[in-house]
Each structure stands twice: as structure tokens, then as C-alpha cells.
């Protein structure tokens, strides 16, 4: 039985009616499988982990408006959970954006402001390290249910080998002021980008923890245009005129196909057997 717990790390009312928990549930949870269960827990509101966390097969740590420097009450229990998952290898874990950063921090890596010191908001090309990326995720790739279709966000069971052989980049949405500046000692770098050297990595002696700085769970219209852009650009004015122009240009060419592809990999990674 596959059971998923999505730990929503953001308590902002801005993410209404669809929040991080809803996004990941839609991406990973299969409503038509009776054996599946998906729990969403807003740790930012509850200030503690759910009692059932140890019974879950897989865990997702979402993005957040907070950063590792905030040192909130629920940070250390979550860091301890990450360390326990790494040590035991009994559960699989995915962390996105803030989740990615907290994983690195909990396991002995380092997190700081972006190297540019500027907020990053755009659709960015992620360069993978193919010989490592597809070694870490071969089981995940094999678990997909049919060839990935960019036309529909449907579950897949198999990725055509030609796709794996030719896939060198992902174009994904990024939105962050901080990033991982040093990997934990037990982590392997899988991908980099212009704004973040440690964009995607796998961690743990069991390689059961996957972390990604970008946001494959985001929908461009809802997440960026309707939620993040008004707050970051219109209100806070955190982008320069040049960065605004670059962001708009990147969004004009964004299709979302790679996000669909990567969400399938996340789902299959979390479901993979040891």
C-alpha cells in the first residue's frame, strides 16, 4: 500500500483555493487506486509533525514563504525527520524549493541567499548530468505507466529509451531568494542551472531522498501570474526592469511539458521499491 504525506510548509492565505498540498496531491496521488492514500498536513500552521508520519510510504516537503534562517518552532522536528529518513531508508522523500533547502541544511549542507543576491522568478533551463541523473532514476523511469505524453498530464508506465538518451535539459519554473550553496557530504548532484548550481540532487546512503530547487508542481497562470508575480513584482518590487523583461520572455516560451515529465519522475521515484 502506497501512502503519501505532503507536508505543506506555507501558511499564507495567498495560496487559496489551491495550495502546495493540493498541487502535490494532484501530481502524485492516484484517486482511482483504492490502496493509495494521500494526507496533507500544514506543518506551518500546526507547528508539529503529524502523528501518522511514520506510517507513510513517502513524504513530500513543499515550498514556503519562509527560509532556513527563520528557525521557526517546527524546523528542528522536520530536520530530525529528514535525518531519520536518510538513516533508515524505510521511506522515500522529495523536497521542492524550501523543502530542497531544508533537506540540504538538515543533512549538513549549506543554504544562503542566491549568488546574485537577487530574487529569481522565471522559466529556467535546468541542465542535468545524464550519466548520473538516469542512474539514480532508472527504477522511477521504469515505473511510469506508458510513454510520457506532453499533451496530457496522465500517468505513464514506461519512458521510451530514446527519450532518456536525448533528454539533457528540463525547462521548469523557478521562484526563490535562497538556494543550496553546498551539498551534504552524502549527496550527489544531478542537475544545475544558471541561478542555482545545486538545482537537483539525491541524498542519503540509500539514495531515497530527492531534492529539487525548481517548481514542477506549479501552473504558470495560477501559481506565477496570479499569485507570485503580484506579490514579488507588483508589491515588493524585487525584480529589476531587466529581470522583469527576462522573466516575461521566458514565460512566453514555457510550455509546461517538462514539468509534466518531471512530476511523473517524482511520483515514480516516491513509489519505487527499495
Give a structural overview.
Strand 9 and strand 10 form a beta hairpin. The protein has helices at 20-28, 43-46, 75-88, 98-106, 130-136, 138-143, 161-166, 220-235, 241-252, 257-271, and strands spanning 3-8, 37-42, 58-61, 92-96, 110-113, 120-128, 169-176, 178-182, 187-192, 200-203, 209-212. The strands form two sheets. The chain has a nine-stranded mixed β-sheet with strand order 2-1-3-4-11-10-9-6-7, sandwiched between helices. It has a two-stranded antiparallel ribbon with strand order 5-8. It is globular. The protein has one domain: Class I glutamine amidotransferase (GATase) domain (Rossmann fold), CATH 3.40.50. It has 274 residues and is α/β, with parallel strands linked by helices. The two termini are 14 Å apart. The model is unreliable at 145-157 (pLDDT under 50). The chain is 36% helix and 22% strand.
Radius of gyration: 17 Å
| Overall CATH class | Alpha Beta
Mean pLDDT: 90
Order of helices and strands: EHEHEHEHEEHHHEEEEEHHH
CATH third-level topology: Rossmann fold
Distance between the termini: 14 Å
Tell me the major beta sheet. 9 strands, mixed
Strand line-up of the largest beta sheet: 2-1-3-4-11-10-9-6-7
Question: Could you name the CATH homologous superfamily?
Answer: Class I glutamine amidotransferase (GATase) domain
Estimate percent helicity. Answer: 25-40%
The domain tally reads 1
Class from secondary-structure proportions: alpha/beta
CATH architecture: 3-Layer(aba) Sandwich
Amino acid at each position: 500500500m502506497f501512502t503519501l504525506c505532503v507536508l505543506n510548509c506555507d501558511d499564507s492565505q495567498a495560496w487559496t483555493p489551491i495550495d502546495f498540498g493540493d498541487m502535490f496531491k494532484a501530481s502524485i496521488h492516484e484517486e482511482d487506486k483504492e490502496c493509495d492514500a494521500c494526507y496533507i498536513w500544514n506543518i506551518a500552521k500546526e507547528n508539529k509533525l503529524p502523528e501518522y508520519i511514520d506510517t507513510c510510504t513517502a513524504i513530500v516537503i513543499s515550498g514556503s514563504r519562509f527560509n532556513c534562517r527563520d528557525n521557526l518552532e517546527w524546523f528542528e522536528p522536520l530536520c530530525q525527520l529528514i535525518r531519520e529518513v536518510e538513516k533508515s531508508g524505510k521511506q522515500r522523500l522529495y523536497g521542492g524549493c524550501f523543502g530542497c533547502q531544508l533537506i540540504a541544511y538538515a543533512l549538513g549542507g549549506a543554504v544562503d541567499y542566491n549568488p546574485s543576491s537577487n530574487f529569481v522568478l522565471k522559466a529556467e533551463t535546468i541542465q542535468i548530468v545524464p550519466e548520473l541523473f538516469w542512474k539514480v532514476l532508472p527504477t522511477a523511469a521504469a515505473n511510469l505507466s506508458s510513454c510520457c505524453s506532453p499533451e496530457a498530464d496522465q500517468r505513464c508506465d514506461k519512458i521510451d529509451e530514446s527519450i532518456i538518451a536525448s533528454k539533457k535539459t528540463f525547462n521548469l519554473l523557478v521562484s526563490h531568494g535562497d538556494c543550496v550553496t553546498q551539498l551534504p557530504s552524502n549527496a550527489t548532484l544531478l542537475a544545475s542551472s544558471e541561478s542555482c548550481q545545486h538545482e537537483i540532487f539525491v541524498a542519503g546512503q540509500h539514495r531515497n531522498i530527492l531534492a529539487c530547487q525548481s517548481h514542477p508542481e506549479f501552473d504558470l497562470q495560477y501559481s506565477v501570474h496570479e499569485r507570485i508575480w503580484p506579490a514579488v513584482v507588483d508589491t515588493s518590487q524585487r525584480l529589476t526592469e531587466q529581470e522583469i523583461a527576462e522573466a516575461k520572455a521566458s514565460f512566453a516560451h514555457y510550455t509546461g511539458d517538462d514539468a509534466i515529465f518531471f512530476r511523473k519522475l517524482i511520483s515514480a521515484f516516491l513509489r519505487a521499491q527499495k
